Amino acid sequence: MMDAMEAIFTRRSTRRMKPDLPPRELIERVIEAGRAAPSGSNSQTTHMIVITNGKVLDELAAIVQEAFAAMEIGPEAYVSLRNSVSAAKKGGYVFHYGAPVLIVTANRKGYGNAIADSACTLENMMIAANALGLGSCWINQLHWLDEDASVRGYLEKLGLKANETVTGGLILGCYDGQPVRGKLKRTGNPVTWIE
Ligand SMILES: Cc1cc2nc3c(=O)[nH]c(=O)nc-3n(C[C@H](O)[C@H](O)[C@H](O)COP(=O)(O)O)c2cc1C
After folding, report:
1. What domain range includes position 124?
2. Is 13 in the pocket of ligand 1 (CB under 6 A)?
3. Percentage of the residues of the chain whose pLDDT score is greater than 70
């Protein structure tokens, strides 16, 4: 298995995956890597809702499509939200790219470290997935739709608690074709070093 540095530096977002579920043992190892993430004051309140049921994923995708299609946004909306809304208005928008596994992360509403803790969990899972030979990609649409009544209602039926906010999500699956790995050069994320 690749070491931690290789897993970090070769990880890339994978959006084309086989429809078949990866072996259960690999999914569980990725989830355990997420659970091992650090959290502010060691609060350990990131809740992962792991969806591997194809019918549920299809239903959720249809609700998300409907929610974005009905959304009116201004020019100040960030580009990825605008893309989701415009794709949904055209119809047939599948926010999770048809991946076989979607892990939704949630955390306590009003908790200052909610997003940061969940991001640690998500990043751990992305690196672990790469090390284990699986593809993954952060999926944020359910976070943006956290206040949407239909989306929330559906997620609450799946186990989201009324006092939790959706902080992010991750798709997981086996590569369809060659693994996407390590081709993006980083020219941003500036570093200020005082010696
Ligand atoms: C906070 C966050 C939200 C993201 N949301 C989405 C998303 O909703 N859908 C998607 O396809 N990719 C999403 N991504 C993936 C980014 O587009 C991707 O990480 C970025 O383009 C860099 O590419 P790389 O992951 O292959 O290095 C998200 C990434 C982050 C960190």
Report:
1. 15-60+96-173
2. yes
3. 100
Q: Residue 33: count other Cβ atoms within 10 Å of its Cβ.
A: 19
Of all atoms in ligand 1, which is nearest to the CA of residue 126?
25
With respect to residue 19, please indicate whether it lies within any of the assigned structural domains: yes
Ligand 1 near 184 CB (within 6 A): yes
Query: Which has the closest alpha carbon to 21: 96, 95, 101?
Result: 101
100, part of any domain: yes
140 lines ligand 1 (CB under 6 A): yes
- pLDDT at position 181 is 79
Token pair 């959304």 in the structure block, residue = 71
Residue 43 inside a domain? The answer is yes
Residue 183: per-residue pLDDT: 74
The answer to whether residue 81 is domain-embedded is no
Count of domains observed in the chain: 1
Cβ atoms of 100 and 19 within 8 Å: the answer is yes
Distances (CA, A) of 17 to 98, 100, 175: 8, 8, 5
CB-CB neighbours of 168 under 10 Å: 22
